[in-house]
Amino acid sequence: MTRALVITNPAAARTRPRSVDAVMRTIEAAGWSVDLAATTGPGDARRLAAEGVALGVDVVAVFGGDGTTMQAAAALVGTDVSLGVIPGGTGNLLAGNLRIPSAPVRAARALVTASPRPFDLGRMERADGLHYFAVACGAGYDARVMAGTLTEHKRRWGMGAYVATTFRLISEIRSTDHVITIDGVEYDANAAMVLVANCGEVIPPYVRLGAGIRPDDGLLDVVVVRANSLGQSVRAVWAMLRMAPDVEGLDTYVGYARGREIRVESHPVHPVQLDGEPGGHTPFTATVVPHAIRIMVPGPG
């Protein structure tokens, strides 16, 4: 019998008590032995997941947003305990990349028939300790959008709140000087946004960062976006949508590279985000942890 711990974040956008009850009934109906724990403050998800590991559970499933999910994932690194993802937040970027259904009950049904698969994580040391990211971290415009989107707006409009902030700030987009070091080799870049990606989609399944970005290849992909106006921003997004390779010349708005250790410095200093959560400011160093965890992933269909 599969033994699971479900961690729920009551503050997340879509984790109402009725939804939590429905998720628990669905998992129990599949014959799993399941316990429920709720977070009450910062750091709780990691602590609760670590307790689940110590108790010998097979799966730690998180019903919450990307922030809560990654807190729990940090406690599973290097263990045999698999991570289950039941999207309950606003962005749910990891769930989207894994094609996990957005409706909680459907996600729970997918969980009990899913299989564990190895999954890389990005690791970053910040002032408050070690952090991991599953989808992407970044500096510049994307982090400004994340920080500039109010919690009440996210609750009311979901992903639409990020879109509104994107358009509100887009007239202010400017490229600045960066030094990006990839596996010890330095590159100068003039960029409005530097993303370090582990997964390929930032708005699943509509906006892809580029072809060939995989969370199980032992590499991180660097996406550098240059833009100084609305028109250039649109061209950069279009380049990503059609996944065009980088070319030399004045019309190059998106550049790609990959490596195992990425350091990003900027002048001036820019805010940083990890899977949509605030992550301090530049500079930062991100390192890949190959096959750091196992995630329960639904099969085709």
Mind telling me the CATH class of the largest domain? Mainly Beta
Task: Assign the CATH topology of the largest domain.
Answer: Tumour Suppressor Smad4
Give the mean pLDDT: 88
Largest sheet: 10 strands, mixed
Assembly form of the protein: single chain
Total strands: 18
Structural class: alpha+beta
Total number of domains: 2
User: Rg, please?
Assistant: 19 Å
Report the helical percentage.
25-40%
Task: Please work out how many helical segments DSSP would assign.
Answer: 9
How much of the polypeptide forms β-strand, as a percent range?
35-45%
CA-CA gap between termini: 25 Å
| Tertiary shape | globular
Order of helices and strands: EHEHEHEHHEEEHHHEEEEEEHEEEEE
Low-confidence stretches: 244-251
CATH architecture of the largest domain: Sandwich
Describe it.
The protein is of the alpha+beta class and 301 residues long. It is built from 9 helices and 18 strands. It folds into 2 domains: 3-113, Probable inorganic polyphosphate/atp-NAD kinase, domain 1 (Rossmann fold), CATH 3.40.50.10330; 136-286, Sandwich (Tumour Suppressor Smad4). Helices cover 30% and strands 37% of the residues. Strands 1, 2, 3, 4, 5, 6, 8, 9, 15 and 18 form a 10-stranded mixed β-sheet that branches. A 6-stranded antiparallel β-sheet has the order 14-13-10-7-16-17. Strand 5 (115-126) and strand 6 form a beta hairpin. The radius of gyration is 19 Å and the shape is globular. The protein starts with a strand and ends with a strand. Residues 244-251 have low confidence and may be disordered.
